[in-house]
Amino acid sequence: MSLSLPVTPFDSGRLIGSVCEAGPSYVKANLPKAAKDSPSLRFGERMAGGQVGEFVFIECAAFAVFGRITSVKLPERDRLAVEVELGKSHEAHPVGNIQLIATLDLDSGRVICGIAEHPRLGSFVYSAPPALVSHVAERFGSKADAEAVVKLHIGSLPSGNHQPIEVTPERVFGRHCAVLGTTGGGKSYTLARLMTECAKHNSRIILLDATGEYHTLGDLAEHYYLGSPAKKPAVGTEVVLPYEELSELDLYALFQPSGKTQAPKLRDAIRSLKLARAAPLLATNGVIYKADRPRKPVVDGMNMHAAAINDPKAKFDVTKLPEQIPCECVYAIGKDFSTKPPRDDPAKYGVDSGEMSYCVTLVSRINAMLQSDALAPILRPTGKTSLFSIFEAFLTHNAKPILRVSLEFVQFDYNARELIANAIGRDLIRRARSGAFADAPLLVFLDEAHQFLNRSLGDEDTAHRLDAFDVIAKEGRKYGLAICMATQRPRDIPDGVLSQMGTLIVHRLINDKDREVVERAAGEIDRAAAAFLPTLSPGEAAVVGVDFPIPLTVQIAMPPERHKPQSEGPNFQKAWTAKRNEPLLTPELAKSALVVFEPEPMAEDDEIPF
To answer: Which has the higher per-residue pLDDT, 78 or 536?
Structure first.
């Protein structure tokens, strides 16, 4: 046995059966102890001896093949052997199906992904010691991983002895991470556990908190929020995301102009307003009027200030858009009405009243958005700090390990949440491409990811995909930008994004479509683990991925008490047993407010309608 192994995989006291049938990815084994009433103990450690989900080792020359029991049954002849009859006892011969997962090299202690040598008929099967299961999970990979100083304690084996599981951040976040599971499965606690473990080290984390439940991170984080709630939260500072920091494409997605007429006029209006800022003398009250006016000053100004006008950022006064758009409804060549009949005048713009009628709906929509409270953090950002300047300060000198951005108070109207999250993601990938995270990796935690991914705004002609986090998932790793997303609806995450997640921490999943998505993303070797997903208890998760040789079931450790997210549902017992408040109307007022309908008396010759 290798000196690097904590215990031997072939402990005679853990012998539970022998192989009776062998296949390319499975074996069947006689498991006589599987029919016992209860598990046994071996040196104080629980040994199930043939229970579904139990990890086992199979003798195979210089290797130990690591596997998991996926089913146990009795041959038909022994089917009645487990029936209890007074004064009688029968011998049962259970047979178990074991999925082959990985190979343990006994000489070096190295874990080999795949099956280096297949078991033979009669090979002994041993119940895997918890310490060795932990060793297989933690030591898979390079020698550098085995000797790593920084490790994250994510949980323990769900067996009775609670063997701890510690993994390196490279294995969890190196290829991105996704935390999946239905409501109540433990996703929020898992995210909090990962963040609090990372916060013990020199980490940098940006958290997009969709519901505000992670305000309990307290002094581990800098807290900011967007939106203007009626009652300010106890934790956090209000910030904005000025439209000037967005791109023109974001504004097209926001205003959703029709493709044939409105989109070109909106584009021209933005260019004119940029010119009005760069050359104020060409504008009247910030608007450049064109109808029946000379073309040359405008054309010359466009050429002179081409750099400012072609800047992809929205550097203009958005409040002037409703006035500027009608000013763009002009012909390139005007008319000289001083002659009869009027003749063409190429030196002036002409009026196009037809196009102006087409733009009425766009102008009305923009006016409504400018007054909308949902878009106030974007379109009315006056006097408040920009979130991107907060990013700059945090990434330059992060006094705390976590920067939490709460979107709890951002409304869903006009797709405000999706636009803000996408703008944040695009800003981060821009910084990553410039090399900002090459030496100091950045982790982005995205809660309720289904709200922000796989979104497209606009119609067929002006469709604008909100794909910033898709790009991060595909490109971010090579730039030092990693994403950890959590969602209860894996089927709403694009397959291309989920397939980029090198590590999946999967809590209970009941919906079969969600499980199918996980199977496709996790790979063929992990499909057998999907059968266990509907039966996981709260807090349990299956950890699968390219850097994990086995689909390991882990009881995720609880985050520190003071940092537990407030994700509990309503307390019906407390609410429904409390003393009922006094009614708004007293019986006397209710009686006086009651309107009684009294039908007119019917005449004797009236017929009753049916």
So the answer is: 536
Q: Give backbone dihedrals phi and psi of 232, rounded to 5 degrees, phi first.
A: -65, 140
HEC string of 416-462?
A: HHHHHHHHHHHHHHHHHHCCCCCCCCEEEEECCHHHCCCEEECCCCC
CA–CA distance, 13 with 21 (Å, rounded to integer): 23
Instruction: Select from 373, 431, 73, 70 the least CA-distant residue to 226.
Output: 373
596 within domain boundaries: no
- Is the model's pLDDT at 291 over the cut of 50? yes
Residues 221 and 251 in one domain: no
Q: For the domain that residue 442 is a member of, what is the CATH number?
A: 3.40.50.300
Residues 419 and 400 in one domain: yes
pLDDT (0 to 100) of residue 610: 41
Q: Are strands 15-22 and 334-336 parallel, antiparallel or unpaired?
A: unpaired
pLDDT tens for 329-377 read 988 887 766 667 777 778 888 888 788 888 999 999 999 999 998 899 9
Identity of residue 107:
D
pLDDT score, position 500: 85
Alpha helices in 381-415 (DSSP H): 387-396
Our count of domains for the chain comes to: 3
- Residue entry with tokens 């500072």: 237
- Which range of residues forms the domain containing residue 520? 173-239+385-563
CB atoms within 10 A of CB 414: 20
Q: Taking phi first (over 0 means left), then psi (-120 to 50 degrees means alpha), and beta for anything else, what does residue 125 get? A: beta
